Amino acid sequence: MQPNRRTARAIPVAAALTSLALAGLAATTASAAPERSTAQPARVSTSGQSAETSYHRLADRKGSKDLVKLDLLAFNDFHGNLEPPSGSGGRVNNTNAGGAAYLGRLLSDERKKSRAAGAVPITVAPGDIVGASPLLSAAFHDEPTIKAMNALGLQVASVGNHEFDEGWRELRRLQTGGCLDDGADGANGQNSCPGDQGFGGADFQFLAANVGWTDPDAHKRKTLFPATKVIKVKGQKVGFIGMTLEGTPDIVTAAGVQGLTFADEVETANALVPKLRKQGVKSIIVLLHEGATPTDPTAYNSCSGVSGAGLTIAQDLSPAIDAVVSGHTHQPYNCVVRDPSGQPRLFTSAYSFGRMVTKLHLLIDPRTHDIVRPAAFAENLIATNDASVAPLASVQSIIDTYNALVSGIADKVIGHIADGTLVSKTQEADGESPLGDLIADGQVADPTTIEAGASGSTGNTPVIALMNPGGIRADLVENAAGDVTYGAAFAVQPFNNFMVSMDLTGAQIKAILNQQWNGANESTRKILQVSGLTYTWDASDAALPDTDALVPGTVMVDADADPAIAMVPLEDGTTYRVVSNNFVSDGGDGFTVFRDGTNKYFGGLDIDSLRMYLEAHDPVTTPVTDRITRQD
What we know:
Layout: H1 5-30, E1 44-46, H2 49-60, E2 68-74, E3 91-92, E4 95-96, H3 100-116, E5 119-126, H4 135-138, H5 143-152, E6 156-158, H6 168-176, E7 205-207, E8 211-213, E9 228-233, E10 236-244, E11 260-262, H7 265-278, E12 283-289, H8 309-316, E13 323-326, E14 332-338, E15 344-350, E16 356-365, E17 370-371, E18 377-382, H9 393-410, E19 413-415, E20 422-423, H10 434-444, E21 464-467, E22 476-477, E23 484-485, H11 486-492, E24 498-505, H12 506-514, E25 529-531, E26 533-538, H13 539-542, E27 556-557, E28 568-569, E29 575-581, H14 582-585, E30 598-605, H15 606-616, E31 628-631
Parallel strand pairs: 2-5, 5-6, 6-7, 10-12, 12-13, 13-15, 21-29, 26-31
Antiparallel strand pairs: 1-14, 2-16, 3-4, 8-11, 9-10, 14-15, 16-17, 16-18, 19-23, 20-22, 21-25, 24-29, 24-30, 26-27, 27-28
Helix pairs in contact: 1-2, 3-5, 5-9, 10-15
């Protein structure tokens, strides 16, 4: 039988696909040597020239108009950074980068390039669009960021852990819209729909494939948001699976995820593959809020020594999944991993704060409806924000509007620094930082954590404060006029956590200190910032698993909260009043012993603890870092 014209045209294309697939696999494997991962050296390489060559050879071949070109534009971990971030967070190597309006300009320009090349662009984000945001966004419940995402054309996003900072109900509101009734001046330093600003919610779709309910029968849908989204690209169905990391409950406030369950990422995605295939979807992309860490983040278009949970997930996902767009670690990488059947699969990340966009170039074979994996390649592009780049006007207008609304809050002077222009958050070798000490001093002095008539062997006044270092997001810096403003303080502590006082025994406090280098923190130590407590820890012991690294007899406490009284040894059987933020109190960052605290009492916000301390000690003197001692 003679083939018709369409069939005849498809035959050479199909042959080309087969030959190039084999050639591409060989080339990818051969090029892997310079960029092998220390974790999986035989299975990881850089997305490079061999795949790009295969892409263009296929796309430019006669008869190639049957192939469908798809360009994914991805960014991750934006965290409400509407304006270009300052310091190293606003650069890629030596290039100034970031800011929503400049991110929007890059996306707009790249879409034009894609369409000119015959490709369909789709814009995606694998989580943490909001949360831990600068004041410009956080003061308005991140409504400005959602509006900016709409303006720059985001289409689909997975939830990240920080999307739950204000709870899943608030996250749902960000999707669907509507204003909170928090008063004309806002509650807790936040104001929904200020002035005449309304809020219509996200135009893009949040996905939450592995976020279910503890009581699924009480809900119409099994997951908080849809698990998948299917987008047609020139007649071809492309499926997106969106997930956050399974460990989300360990790194967010318990109240924010109460009633939710977080399932294994690989099991979740693999179970969705046959469901998508039943819908005729063969091209499948995972948006994963879990990532990896390269040994050289300056080589942002490389895959240098990547390691981490995201890498393992990307390698273990079903062979039917064509690419993994990741985030969470705030690191850039451009990798090809091997799936369980040995086929190449893109695994990418685009830094953070809107500084970068990953552009994934994909070809879909209309016969199989699947992505041609050996011809898939990616490139990380910098969202430069210098004078040569015109910010996207629609996004800049949103930023200007909210800057006018927030100025009265942000510019309020709350103190000064007596001995310099900043207090550094940088931890010294022992794990202590000047700003960590200052924040802890403010927390132990916070009067809102004292409950009248509360019980406890040492009374109801906290004598110890323990602050997680991950909650300190920036140095405390004076402005050009020499003032510390509320905006500067908020940049330090943007989470709006509540302060919690509780009773803990001396034995429990020691157990908490040992969790700094054991359990969930064994691979990456988290040294709590302290007030009212001093101790020495042994680094050689801390390097061993499940080890008590506290040097015996060195843990001392200010048992009476009176600086005139000398420190005394911490007694295992004595109960002490301790204050922390609610994230730590709920066991966050692996400090699970905090959950055993009793007589818990909620005070005000952590940002207000810092504000009140700065106002009461104006000008504040930078603390001497002499509370924690490391013994090697």
